[in-house]
Design goal:
This protein is an alpha+beta fold. Helices cover 31% and strands 24% of the residues. The chain has one domain (11-279): ApbE-like domains (T-fold). A hairpin with a 2-residue loop joins strand 2 and strand 3.
Length: 281
């Protein structure tokens, strides 16, 4: 359900790509930061100032390493904070009882009575073959965004490069892909009928951390923001050169629930699924 048509005057939200580290160190880094509150929220998120969100009110909610940038029809900061505390609390409590959820690099089977956010992270870990914590940013963005929809018909939640959105007008999501010639030149067009939608991002070149992947941007779209998050990481690990784009797309086709992917390596780009890409002239 990723389709539509755009015009140059539509609102544009530039989507920053998240660092992609080697599979093991990526998971260890996520686990440590989730536990210790050392996420890169302390670094300037300059891309947030590129978002043109006419008709919406923007605000931040920060709890430990969770740093959300939210847009909605009215200021819902207090409700968003309560939502973050609720979902983080249930996740942290579960991890306290089941530490393997935090440490495993493999797919995870959650109990039927586990919190909803835990079950969703476990579900997408099995679909993508990565540990459940690979989906934590997207899962929290979606959980909070879904809660806020009770108070606003339009909600956009960004969590470290992973986005949950439910929109009432057509919007463009511009792609930031490091030094690639595509950066700020193209955008994803998202229409209201495609949402709620999750957009997950990973990059092997933005930033200074070691990475097994070399893609400038891997963007995954799904009705589940948790799945988009985990899939972007899994696919990004595959891409070490432009020749690997087709291999990653083949993998993407096998992941149930993905509606599209965009993979950029230098001046090469691969696209699969119902994705509409438009120029930003």
């Amino acid at each position: 359900m990723c389709q539509g048509l755009s015009s140059p005057g539509d609102d544009i939200a530039f989507l920053i790509t998240r660092l992609l580290r080697p599979d093991k160190s990526t998971r260890n880094d996520r686990r440590d930061r989730f536990r210790e509150g050392e996420e890169s929220m302390h670094e300037p998120r300059f891309y947030r100032h590129w978002i043109k969100d006419s008709g919406l009110i923007s605000f931040n909610v920060v709890v430990a390493q969770t740093d959300l940038y939210i847009r909605s029809r009215r200021n819902l900061k207090d409700k968003a904070l309560n939502s973050v505390l609720k979902h983080r609390g249930s996740l942290e409590a579960y991890i306290g009882r089941h530490p393997l959820f935090l440490t495993t690099l493999d797919s995870y089977e959650a109990e039927a009575e586990a919190p909803v956010i835990v079950r969703e992270m476990a579900r997408v870990s099995k679909l993508t073959g990565v540990g459940p914590m690979a989906a934590v940013a997207g899962a929290i963005a979606e959980a909070v965004g879904s809660d806020l929809l009770a108070f606003s018909p339009e909600v956009i939640v960004e969590n470290g490069g992973d986005i949950f959105l439910k929109i009432s007008k057509k919007r463009l999501v511009g792609i930031y892909a490091g030094q690639s010639s595509f950066t700020k030149k193209i955008a994803l067009e998202i229409t209201p009928r495609e949402t709620p939608l999750g957009i997950g991002t990973s990059s092997g070149t933005v930033g200074h951390s070691l990475s097994l992947g070399s893609a400038d941007a891997v963007i995954a779209l799904s009705s589940s923001a948790a799945l988009a998050d985990a899939a972007a990481t899994a696919l990004g690990n595959i891409v070490k050169a432009a020749d690997d784009i087709s291999k990653a797309i083949k993998k993407a086709r096998s992941i149930e629930g993905l509606c599209g992917v965009v993979i950029i390596v230098g001046d090469k780009m691969g696209v699969w699924g119902r994705v509409k890409i438009v120029p930003l002239d």
